[in-house]
């Protein structure tokens, strides 16, 4: 995964009741900033937000005259992770379907590995659902670690997530 260190600016809204004549403690601003980032999860440009690494500047209190909200413009650094097409990752099988499997890799959930992109694996729904290699002894069942290549990715605005499709066609890819 590609980890990025980015600089961001966010307007942190603070409840009016938390304000005092001495101002607002920076701790309260940082907590509200973390809540806003946590609620966002991901963006098309930056990928998945992992952590706020440092706070650069908290500017003076401002008031939105239209809504009456009190906010502080905050500049900070943030670590993000963004999958790239062609990148090789390791994921854990979470769900097995007839048409393929779903994997999780770090903050990226529901990575789809289609049966077509498995090359030589067949369904086996006997006692435990799994995909078994026709010529060989390898298999993929729930909990198996799989090395895969990112085949495609697409930003889904409605769910604020990146849909990733995978392949294990190629050398040194497949279950570990």
From TrEMBL:
Gene3D superfamilies listed in its UniProt record: Nucleic acid-binding proteins, RNA polymerase Rpb7-like, N-terminal domain
GO CC aspect terms: DNA-directed RNA polymerase complex; nucleus
GO molecular function, one term: single-stranded DNA binding
Top-level taxon of origin: Eukaryota
Keywords linked to the UniProt accession: DNA-directed RNA polymerase, Nucleus, Transcription
Protein name in the entry: DNA-directed RNA polymerase subunit
Keyword Nucleus attributed: yes
Organism, scientific name: Dendrobium catenatum
Task of the protein: DNA-dependent RNA polymerase which catalyzes the transcription of DNA into RNA using the four ribonucleoside triphosphates as substrates.
Coarse class of the protein's main subcellular location: nucleus
Location(s), subcellular: Nucleus
Keyword set includes Heme: no
């Amino acid at each position: 995964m590609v980890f990025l260190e980015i600089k961001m600016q966010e307007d942190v809204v603070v409840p009016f009741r938390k304000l005092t004549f001495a101002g607002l403690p920076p701790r309260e601003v940082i907590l509200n900033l973390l809540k806003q980032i946590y609620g966002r999860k991901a963006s098309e440009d930056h990928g998945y937000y992992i952590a706020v690494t440092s706070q650069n500047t908290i500017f003076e209190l401002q008031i939105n005259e239209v809504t009456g909200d009190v906010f502080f413009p905050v500049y900070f650094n943030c670590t993000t992770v963004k999958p790239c097409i062609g990148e090789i990752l390791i994921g854990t099988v979470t769900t097995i379907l007839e048409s393929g499997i779903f994997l999780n890799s770090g903050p990226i959930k529901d990575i789809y590995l289609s049966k077509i992109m498995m090359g030589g694996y067949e369904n086996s729904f006997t006692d435990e659902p799994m995909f078994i290699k026709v010529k060989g002894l390898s298999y993929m069942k729930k909990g198996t670690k799989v090395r895969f290549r990112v085949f495609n990715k697409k930003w889904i605005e409605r769910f604020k997530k990146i849909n990733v499709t995978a392949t294990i066609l190629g050398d040194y890819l497949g279950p570990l």
